[in-house]
């Protein structure tokens, strides 16, 4: 525990220092809420936006005008997977920019709570550190998952080219095979255009990686922080009547209620920001899973493993599982607070004001703290339903195209 306290006692115990991986990712893709918006930033954003939109359009062009008309459904599902990824990345980046002020406010709230934690007693400090560490693990996971998924595409192409060179028949292997418009198809195998397309695809992969690392950990980080604050309130409730005078109890209850109201408002703000996007993520994940799994199973039939789409399949599962899991954790911690309120020992007290306040708190906490999409609560039951729908789509694809 000594190491933990060395960390928490530092003056730089802030969102920026703890979650530096997500911070740097947002700085790279220019979506960080504290970046000054000026003409230079606009120029940078237009370059990134052009890269993202052009990738989406090229993939859609290949699906509509080449793959489906030629009945190449395996290629259509492959390009469809990447088109969904490109569209998702574009929307997430736009989300970070649109909700710049709200994200900045959430980060400031976390920083304020971390600053207050420096003066907490040992038990409360440990709670803050525990949930900060869990949030940091989320950023590390997304760093690994997004980086590996992005790197396997160029790495596989380079290995195949090295193999052809070793056998004395060198040929260009594209990072991602798709049909471009005719004017590009005619020259895409020439050295100059091959290098340009390879760099273009690599840059898009790098950009997509930064968006996933910068965006996807945010909701779990904020939810875990709220869970930590709920645990602190639970601890305060369970120790509310320990050697406390009547006036002290009333003051403590007032503070707890004010903090609880702030946490409910914070969850509602996160709901209003992420509701539509979570619904979009659920729908896209429902299609990404069968599309990527179809690529894997088709490659296995040829006694090969499509590493690129296997990594996408694994990352897609975690993409929707993580917010469901941490929303479930939030639900569990809010229920734990309600039990702490009930078991605080109020029945042994003669303080009428405190008993009435606790009754109101019990009523207030009846409403569970949980995120939701437009139609579903974000929880593990919803994740299971999404997997069931994906499996049904996969079976249909196998019956129709395999």
SSE string: HHHHHHHHHHHHHH
Taking the sheet with the most strands, its summary is: none
**What class, by secondary structure content?**
mainly alpha
Radius of gyration equals 25 Å
Number of strands: 0
> What is the helix fraction of residues, given as a range?
over 70%
Mean pLDDT: 90
Contiguous low-pLDDT stretches (5 residues minimum) are 1-7
| Tally of discrete structural domains | 1
Family: Belongs to the insect chemoreceptor superfamily. Heteromeric odorant receptor channel (TC 1.A.69) family.
Protein name: Odorant receptor
GO biological process, one term: signal transduction
Organism: Conogethes punctiferalis (Durian fruit borer)
Mind explaining what this structure looks like?
- The chain is mostly helical and 402 residues long.
- It has one domain (2-17, 100-176, 206-401).
- 78% of the residues lie in helices and 0% in strands.
- It is built from 14 helices and no strands.
- Helix 11 runs antiparallel to helix 12.
- The radius of gyration is 25 Å and the shape is elongated.
- The N and C termini lie far apart (56 Å).
- Mean pLDDT is 90; it is low at 1-7.
- This is Odorant receptor.
- It is a multi-pass membrane protein.
- One of its GO terms (cellular component) is plasma membrane.
- InterPro entries: 7tm6_olfct_rcpt.
- One of its GO terms (biological process) is signal transduction.
